[in-house]
Amino acid sequence: MFAKGVWNALNILGVAGLLVAILIRMSQGYFINALVLVGLLVAYLVSVCVIKLYEIVDLMRAEK
Predict the structure, then answer these.
(1) What whole-number distance in Å separates Cα of residue 50 and Cα of residue 7?
(2) Which of 19, 51, 56, 63 has the fewest other C-beta atoms within 10 Å?
(3) Which letter does DSSP use for residue 28 in this model?
(4) For the chain, what is the largest distance between any 2 Cα atoms, rounded to a whole number of angstroms?
(5) pTM (2 d.p.)
């Protein structure tokens, strides 16, 4: 259940990060925008993996 709360928080942060990236794109060059989007993508993928690990740990604890 802890994992679901963290997942929701990370989704909110992801949406906020995309909005920030759009604002940066409107005010800066394309290179900076590309770096921001790649960084957000990597952070999102890492967060998905971490949440899946938490879910597996929760399932293992529930079985005991």
Answers:
(1) 9
(2) 63
(3) S
(4) 54
(5) 0.48
Unique residue bearing structure tokens 């709360």: 5
Answer whether 24's CB lies under 8 Å from 40's CB: no
Q: Cα angle at 14 between 9 and 17, to 5 degrees?
A: 125
DSSP 64: -
**Which residues contact residue 21 at a Cβ distance below 8 angstroms, ignoring those fewer than 6 apart?**
33, 36, 37, 40
| AA identity, residue 53 | L
Give the number of C-alpha atoms closer than 13 A to the C-alpha of residue 25, restricted to the C-beta side: 12
**Do the Cβ atoms of 7 and 53 come closer than 8 Å?**
no
Q: Which two tokens stand for residue 5?
A: 């709360």
Domain ranges for the chain? 2-63
